[in-house]
Amino acid sequence: MEVSSNTPAVVTGGASGLGEATARALAAKGAKVAIFDMNEEKGEAVAKDIGGIFCKVNVTSDEDVDAGFAKAREAHGQERILVNCAGIGNAIKTAKRDKQTGEISHFPLSAFDFVIQVNLVGTFRCIAKSAAGMMTLDPLSEDGDRGAIVNTASVAGEDGQIGQAAYSASKGGVIGMTLPIARDLMQEGIRVNTILPGIFNTPLMNAAPPQVKEALAASVPFPKRLGDPEEYAKLAMCMIETGYFNGEDVRLDGAIRMAPR
Ligand SMILES: NC(=O)c1ccc[n+]([C@@H]2O[C@H](COP(=O)([O-])OP(=O)(O)OC[C@H]3O[C@@H](n4cnc5c(N)ncnc54)[C@H](O)[C@@H]3O)[C@@H](O)[C@H]2O)c1
After folding, report:
1. Which of 34, 50, 79, 214 has minimal Cβ neighbours within 10 Å of its Cβ?
2. Ligand 1 centre from 104 Cα, in Å?
3. Residues 115, 165: Cα–Cα separation, whole Å
4. Is 174:194 a contact under the CB 8 Å cutoff?
5. pLDDT in tens, 56-67
């Protein structure tokens, strides 16, 4: 599907990092972009900059997501593109012993559930509601292409590190559901693909001290640097625009395989 002038698109997590870069890449091709994010200040600023709209959406809320799609569709028409980038992480061991006191504790289940709700259920919520909307559209090509969906997992969905049980489970869920969702939607001409980013230079990473960033960069086989959000956006655009790209989970990681810690 060619992204052309006025193609309606929704990007979750579009206020920052990988989502922001993708929102900008879509807008550069003329797409009308609606940003779904909880960060109102940054989301409004990006939307203004790219001639799109901001919708204050928490992807864990059914009401928020419904209201976001209603607002986006009213402004731009039914979206043909959905890119899911909203996500969070935490780092807690499944069970641990305090080195000083010997006290034993375990991963609080509420913290585990929260990550699953945002990264996995939130992504599925947006996919299901967007796909139902896309199904009302006329096909664009002889193939019957109606729309394209891109999700964001993580290399941690395959090689999760110490403390990443919840994050890895959520991203592994996104990886695992890509093919069955593509199969669910195959007769409706809606393609679904997922990107597994390695370590990318986003605001999330900017919080880390320079020596930590240097060590992370050195751990990448080639090229020895963090990924550029624009490289993520390039792959997302390729997945959207290449009609034969469907049901795939693709690592974008400079050949990194994460060590236990
Ligand atoms: N940066 C990396 O190295 C990296 C690596 C692998 C995977 N990822 C994944 O890529 C995605 C984007 O990460 P990023 O690095 O751009 O992070 P980021 O923090 O820069 O951007 C994430 C955006 O998601 C929004 N968000 C968080 N929870 C939300 C919710 N419940 N509802 C709506 N919006 C919400 C935030 O406000 C933020 O604007 C995440 O899913 C992350 O897990 C990032």
Report:
1. 214
2. 31
3. 10
4. yes
5. 999 999 999 999
Chain segment 133-189, per-residue pLDDT in tens = 999 999 999 999 999 999 999 999 999 999 999 999 999 999 999 999 999 999 999
Domain ranges of the chain: 8-252
CA–centroid distance, 22 to ligand 1, in Å, is 12
Residues 6+ apart with CB under 8 A from 80: 1, 7, 8, 9, 134, 137, 140, 146, 147, 148
Do the beta carbons of residue 196 and residue 252 sit within 8 Å? yes
Which CATH fold topology does 8-252 show? Rossmann fold (3.40.50)
Residues recognised as catalytic: 167
- State the maximum Cα–Cα separation within the chain, in Å, rounded to a whole number: 67
Distance 42 CA to ligand 1 centre (A): 13
* Average pLDDT taken over every residue of the chain: 97
Q: Which residues line ligand 1 (CB under 6 A)?
A: 12-13, 15-19, 37-39, 57-60, 85-89, 118, 122, 152, 154, 197, 199-200, 202-205
Enter the tokens of residue 95: 């069970």
Q: Cα(89)–Cα(72) distance, rounded to whole angstroms? A: 27
- What number of other Cβ atoms are within 10 A of residue 175's Cβ? 16
Q: What is the pLDDT of residues 9-34, one digit of tens each?
A: 999 999 999 999 999 999 999 999 99
Q: Looking at ligand 1, which residue's alpha carbon is closest to its atom 43?
A: 87
**Which residue out of 36, 57, 202, 249 has the highest number of ligand 1 atoms within 8 Å of its CB and is therefore the one to mutate?**
202
